[in-house]
Amino acid sequence: MVYKKYCVVLLIFALAIVQAVGYDTELFETVACDSTACFDALHGALGDCSCNVDTIDYFNNVKIFPRIQSLVSKDYFRFYKVNLKKECPFWADDSRCAMKYCHIKTCSKESVPGFENDYENELEEEPPALKYSQEAQTPCNSDADHDPALGYLNMTLSVASQFEIAKWKAYDDSVGNFCDCDDKDAEAEYVDLSLNPERYTGYKGTSAHRIWRSIYEENCFRPKVNPYKSFPYVLSSDLGNMCLEKRVFYRAVSGLHTSINIHLCSKYLLSEKKLGFAAPPEGEWGPNLAEFQRRFDPSQTFGEGPNWLKNLYFVYLLEMRALAKAGPYLEREDYFTGNPVEDEETRDAIRNMLGVIYTFPDHFNESSMFNGGSPAAKLKQEFRDHFWNISRIMDCVGCDKCKLWGKLQTQGLGTALKILFSGQWDSFDEEAEKGRIVLRHKAHKRLQRTEIVALFNAFARLSNSIRELENFRNMLSSHTDGQKDVFSGAAGDIKRERCTSGVSKPSLWS
């Protein structure tokens, strides 16, 4: 009898150990808390500017969102010329990892400025040549999620569209270009953005992780080595140890990353194509609340999720300031497509939206950056070089649809940075109360068609992300039942509600 009692006690103890170990091993696979924790801190001042989140929420959702979404549906903004065939300049091309609806970008650690001088006690880094060698790469064709069909990019253009686009190019060439872009490449092609919406593609694993890890660890300015090997981001508590310019760079990249993650969560593949006339031909797509929580809930992201969401508002503010600063130039563009009626409608829509943007009370103030002579000029060059590297990393993305939207949004942000910091748009005649400048020598400040298309579409994606946050906020508020895990035990399947207090491994744009 005593022996049996000992056996029971031992069995109970063993089950307790198994359950405890289960919690520990699931630390990186926990379900997000069923709460509004993602939004609890998403209020008040943004930092590094005089604006606050609530002001942007109202301004975007009520005034900007409907205007910008209507604008980018116009033919001028619907067709984007891009070269998706460039080889990755940093490591072996892994386009074989292309999957259903996907793509992203990368950057290198050696280019972090002042890294060696600021941190003399840092361990010696692995040489870049070894890091990107073939032997150092992990093959991704064995990825269980690999499905080329999901990464299919619709390149369909009607004969009429091809004819009209040829006229656009002839017109652009006649007035000259501002800078070298993908549309100069022999392999560049026009893509109809309306046929290739940005949404979840299944692109994840080694390839996607390497891209974002390279961006954050190798090309973003960093105050020190991050102690979390599986967490490549800069903790918000460390941002104060960086100067304004470096913080702006990091927050802009983080905000772009956040925006893309929100797009994937809001246009998630909820179910595959089904039989029957009522089923959507490409499957069912919609918001995935659990996925949103996994990416942004504080309990899943070292408490950083709300800060990443704030960075979305920050990069939105930065790009909106670029539109305001270049507004007089953009108001004078022709937006030529060969259709006089639509061209005039496009110009009217541009003027209408810019008129609203001018009324925003708290624009980002770029004049406080890069002041201080030679050191400031050197920092600006490093700033430019870092973003240039990130734009090149976009060619390493293994999914055509992800590469398309990654390159477009990166070019849009790069165009905004050029407007703000190149000096070509600066003027002593600036109307500070409206955030506008008097345009001079327009021919010397010309933006290429692809830059304008990227600038407005990138801003439209940020606007859409902020609008989608409102949808997720409402979903979380009305979601009272919670999420449940199913555990298998000696007594059978046990269903229990769980809100983890641990920290999960954050996603790297997967």
Order of helices and strands: HHHHEHHHEHHEEHHHHHHHEE
Biggest sheet details: 2 strands, antiparallel
End-to-end CA span: 56 Å
* Total number of strands: 6
Structural class: mainly alpha
Radius of gyration: 25 Å
Strand fraction band?
Answer: 5-15%
Main sheet: strand order:
1-2
Family: Belongs to the EROs family.
Organism: Danaus plexippus plexippus
GO molecular function: FAD binding; protein-disulfide reductase activity; thiol oxidase activity
Protein name: Endoplasmic reticulum oxidoreduction 1
Task: Please tell me about this protein's structure.
The protein is mainly alpha-helical. It has one domain (2-92, 148-273, 280-426, 447-481). The chain is 47% helix and 5% strand. The strands form three sheets. The protein has a two-stranded antiparallel sheet. A two-stranded antiparallel sheet has the order 3-4. A hairpin with a 2-residue loop joins strand 5 and strand 6 (492-497). The longest helix is centred in the C-terminal third of the chain and has 30 residues, at 449-478. The model is unreliable at 15-32, 95-126, 174-180, 439-444 and 480-510 (pLDDT under 50). Its main location: endoplasmic reticulum. Disulfide bonds join 97-102, 140-179, 399-402. It is found in: Endoplasmic reticulum membrane.
What descriptors fit this protein?
6 strands; two-stranded antiparallel sheet; flavoprotein; 510 residues; thiol oxidase activity; mainly alpha; disordered C terminus
What's the short story on this structure?
47% of the residues lie in helices and 5% in strands. The protein is built from 16 helices and 6 strands.
